[in-house]
Amino acid sequence: MTTSRRSGENLPKRAHLHKIFDEYLSQLGLRQTRQRKIILDAVLSSGRHVDAETIFNEVKKIDASIGLATIYRTLKMMTDSQILVERHFGGDRASFEFADLGNEHHDHLICNQCGEIVEFFDEGLERYQDLVAKNLGFNLKNHKMELFADCLASENCNRKNLK
Amino acid sequence: MTTSRRSGENLPKRAHLHKIFDEYLSQLGLRQTRQRKIILDAVLSSGRHVDAETIFNEVKKIDASIGLATIYRTLKMMTDSQILVERHFGGDRASFEFADLGNEHHDHLICNQCGEIVEFFDEGLERYQDLVAKNLGFNLKNHKMELFADCLASENCNRKNLK
DNA sequence: TTCGCTGCAAAGGATTTGCATTCTA
DNA sequence: TAGAATGCAAATCCTTTGCAGCGAA
């Protein structure tokens, strides 16, 4: 059985993530600042997969004085605090997404037409990967898998979001 | 059934690749040069997964006057000519490997201990991925999969190559 | 004698870091 | 008030490009 989630669906609760991040900060004797709140809000309202530039642009609307360096520093901090995970889909630009808080790991399917990213999890596939690694003489620890595909029916594809 | 190949095994024949590359060059009216020969030789003797820096160091032993820019230009050219494929394992540095000349696609398993890269192909796994994509409403075109694992028995791991 | 090639240095793009200043706790 | 955080600019890292001279065909 395959479970999936498309971009923007099922976002973790705003308050919950603010709480986790705040707790992380105080545990380490770090400070809650205006820019950290703004950046987290920007991440929260920017969909599941964002990069530093996107957040920067979003943040500038609220406070134009915030610098790109702070975005990077804060994104890294959020990654350390486990609320975000860093990905490298393209090769150059890093992409961030919410960690699966207490939830399952997932993989990604990227639509060749519109670039939509569908997150999915398939237990059988996971087991199969485990088996293959064992056959090769290894003990699988984790993996990265991205499927690149065309949609079968146009409703599945949000190419309409493109211009 | 899983087939696999470890770094350095089963290298394509030197003469064969030189021929393919030379033909590619003349087809496009490009020139065979001393540095292109040297760089291809360096790639050929550097194992299956190499980066620009590695090739640069190898090449310098033969001709210290060759510049890094030429390495990049030539590597790109070899990628265009289909004898190499560019990969992005880490995220920053690009890695190149020989294309599967008329052969099958493969995935990678990377050893957490020594960084060894094992190439493998498993038809069942491929079919399973296809199925998962279909379930999500997509037609799988290609994919990227990397397994990160620990070796089960020390003989499988070439950590002895590390210092 | 052409152009394609090359080395070098400068340019790029993403991300990080040094530093003086500002601000949270 | 101490020390963390910020903004800015400079610095990195990998890779690409511009350019004037070099060299295959």
Automatic annotation (TrEMBL), chains A, B:
<keyword id="KW-0678">Repressor</keyword>
<feature type="binding site">
    <location>
        <position position="126"/>
    </location>
    <ligand>
        <name>Fe cation</name>
    </ligand>
</feature>
<keyword id="KW-0805">Transcription regulation</keyword>
<feature type="binding site">
    <location>
        <position position="143"/>
    </location>
    <ligand>
        <name>Fe cation</name>
    </ligand>
</feature>
<comment type="similarity">
    <text>Belongs to the Fur family.</text>
</comment>
<feature type="binding site">
    <location>
        <position position="157"/>
    </location>
    <ligand>
        <name>Zn(2+)</name>
    </ligand>
</feature>
<keyword id="KW-0862">Zinc</keyword>
<dbReference type="InterPro" id="IPR002481">
    <property type="entry name" value="FUR"/>
</dbReference>
<dbReference type="GO" id="GO:0045892">
    <property type="term" value="P:negative regulation of DNA-templated transcription"/>
</dbReference>
<dbReference type="InterPro" id="IPR043135">
    <property type="entry name" value="Fur_C"/>
</dbReference>
<feature type="binding site">
    <location>
        <position position="114"/>
    </location>
    <ligand>
        <name>Zn(2+)</name>
    </ligand>
</feature>
<keyword id="KW-0963">Cytoplasm</keyword>
<keyword id="KW-0408">Iron</keyword>
<dbReference type="InterPro" id="IPR036390">
    <property type="entry name" value="WH_DNA-bd_sf"/>
</dbReference>
<dbReference type="GO" id="GO:1900705">
    <property type="term" value="P:negative regulation of siderophore biosynthetic process"/>
</dbReference>
<feature type="binding site">
    <location>
        <position position="151"/>
    </location>
    <ligand>
        <name>Zn(2+)</name>
    </ligand>
</feature>
<feature type="binding site">
    <location>
        <position position="105"/>
    </location>
    <ligand>
        <name>Fe cation</name>
    </ligand>
</feature>
<dbReference type="GO" id="GO:0000976">
    <property type="term" value="F:transcription cis-regulatory region binding"/>
</dbReference>
<dbReference type="InterPro" id="IPR036388">
    <property type="entry name" value="WH-like_DNA-bd_sf"/>
</dbReference>
<keyword id="KW-0238">DNA-binding</keyword>
<keyword id="KW-0804">Transcription</keyword>
<keyword id="KW-0479">Metal-binding</keyword>
<feature type="binding site">
    <location>
        <position position="107"/>
    </location>
    <ligand>
        <name>Fe cation</name>
    </ligand>
</feature>
<dbReference type="GO" id="GO:0003700">
    <property type="term" value="F:DNA-binding transcription factor activity"/>
</dbReference>
<dbReference type="GO" id="GO:0008270">
    <property type="term" value="F:zinc ion binding"/>
</dbReference>
<dbReference type="Pfam" id="PF01475">
    <property type="entry name" value="FUR"/>
</dbReference>
<comment type="subunit">
    <text>Homodimer.</text>
</comment>
<dbReference type="GO" id="GO:0005829">
    <property type="term" value="C:cytosol"/>
</dbReference>
<protein>
    <recommendedName>
        <fullName>Ferric uptake regulation protein</fullName>
    </recommendedName>
</protein>
<feature type="binding site">
    <location>
        <position position="111"/>
    </location>
    <ligand>
        <name>Zn(2+)</name>
    </ligand>
</feature>
